[in-house]
Amino acid sequence: MSGFISEGADEIYCGILGVSSHVHHAQNFGTVGEILAAIHLAKKAKKKFYFVANDSYDGAARATAEVISFLVRSGIDGVVVKDLHLMLRLKEKKIKTKYILSTLAGCLNIEAVRFYMDLGVRRVVLPVQTTPQEAAEVIRNKFGVETEIFLTSRQYCANFNGVCSLNFGSEDPFNCYCQESMRAADGSAFLMPHMSMAEHMQDLYEYHRLGVTALKVGRSQALWLSRIILKEALALTAMLKSGCSKDVFLRRAAVINSAFDKAHAALKDIVCQEGGS
After folding, report:
1. In terms of Cα–Cα distance, which of 261, 213, 179, 202 is closest to 11?
2. Which of 19, 165, 179, 193 is most buried, taking the most CB atoms under 10 A from its CB?
3. Cα 32 to the center of its chain, rounded Å
4. SS3 180
């Protein structure tokens, strides 16, 4: 965690073993005590620290709410949530913190924003499958609800990941099954459609222009992978904040993307050769 802070992350988020948080192969903390130490470290560095509980099933809602209540009292800055039954329990128990709606919830329109805001949500992580044009009304909402996106050029799925299980069972941190060639009914090869790097960068620019406030790097079982994606995200964010034109951003982003493509490939080869993460 100290590495992410020193490299420039403004916010850190974590899971804990025993509280479901969707990414089954991601590295999580093992105990609440470890999270308390991480909260202290984040506060010392003047960074925000969030807890992820975005895949809570009905039978675990009570225990999950108790963990969240304890962490809120201990100074955590917010919680990433998805499930209605958990949000209703948290509201009933008057556990107040900054609630961030997970991308898994599929918040697609302004009425959904209004609905979740009444449950305490103060930030929405947009589904990666939406375009800036489709999300414009959500981003520019008048409720004061913030919006957040993933760096989709590195972490993107053509399917709604809240209802897709094609990645489950794959132990490869670099791929999920939906990125592999499949056999169509007529026997031909089929590959799910994906956006080009240039298209991802155009969307990133438009999201920033519309007012998205946070760029997110997803968790991974490969710690080095998250760190290198963070470095790329920081480089792109610095360009966006510089106020450069769209044409200038796209040209410079292409250079950054190319450099990080090479870094990804080189590190992947090293990790695969060593058989570790």
Report:
1. 213
2. 19
3. 22
4. coil
pLDDT per 10-residue tile (average), the chain, 277 residues:
88 82 62 92 96 78 91 96 92 96 93 96 94 97 96 79 60 60 83 86 97 88 79 95 96 94 78 59
Q: Write phi, then psi, for 101 (nearest 5 degrees).
A: -80, 120
Kindly tell me the burial class for residue 195, based on how many C-beta atoms sit within 10 Å of its own C-beta (0-12, 13-18, 19 or more): middle
Burial code (b: 16+ CB inside 10 Å, e: under 16) for 155-185 equals bbbbeebeeeebbeeeeebeebebbeeeeee
Q: What is the DSSP string of 42-109?
A: HHHTT-EEEEEETT--GGGHHHHHHHHHHHHHTT--EEEE--HHHHHHHHHTT--SEEEE-GGG---S
Distance CA 116, CA 139 (A): 14
- In the prediction, which pLDDT does 143 show? 96
pTM (whole model) above 0.85? yes
- Closest by alpha carbon to 119, among 142, 140, 100, 141? 100
User: What does the alpha-carbon distance between residue 125 and residue 151 come to, in Å, rounded to a whole number?
Assistant: 12
The DSSP secondary-structure symbol of 177 reads G
As a whole number of angstroms, the distance between CA 217 and CA 233 comes to 8
- The CB-based long-range contact list for 140-146 (8 Å cut-off, 24+ gap) reads 140/210, 140/211, 141/110, 141/113, 143/113, 143/114, 143/117, 145/113, 145/117, 145/121, 146/122, 146/213, 146/214
At 164 the pLDDT is 67
Count Cβ atoms within 10 A of the Cβ of residue 138 and give its class: 0-12 exposed, 13-18 middle, 19 or more buried: buried
Amino acid, single-letter form, for residue 1: M
The residue type found at 125 is V
